[in-house]
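Suppose you are handed only these lines of text.
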Amino acid sequence: MSEPFLVMLDRDGTINVDKHYLADPAGLDLLPGAVDGLVKLRDAGAVLCIVTNQSGIGRGYFDRTTADSINDALVEMLKPHGITFAHIALCPHAPDEVCECRKPAPGMALECAQATGLALADSWVIGDKASDVGLANNTGGRGILISGETDIQAGQVFTAPSLSEAADYILQARAS
Ligand SMILES: [Mg+2]
Ligand SMILES: [Zn+2]
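From them, the structure of the protein bound to magnesium ion can be written out as follows.
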């Protein structure tokens, strides 16, 4: 049994297709490689958490109940694959609210570390935005960008086309 370690995942554009301020669970579509990547991480001992900026709440596009219903739908969608999340952290704030939790601010990573009892120094953040990599950089973890972009940010160790390749990279890094 491998040692548990913390993997924090962005939601929109990382696990599911980014529909920009998704406000309807019916619009939830998993990205190619998402289930495959999450299964590989789970089997390697990763404790999975979601860290999601949902400024659509702060901007008044949808309410917290709607955002939670989308998270619930995602959880239900992944359950048949044996994928579960130890914690789902959500920032409901608009950028101008200047909170402690909107990525790349460290709040949601601290929340996940507290919820799981796992070390941020041995953690990973996977996301499709510079702010996801920034969260890793701000909390001592390693960031993987799911993107076609190749410019490397501080804290970024790899650029992956999907969660599947991100998982391969993490497994290889931990084995060596
Ligand atoms: Mg995203
Ligand atoms: Zn916030």
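What can we learn from it? The longest helix spans residues 64-78. The helical segments are 34-43, 55-58, 64-78, 107-116, 130-139, 163-175.
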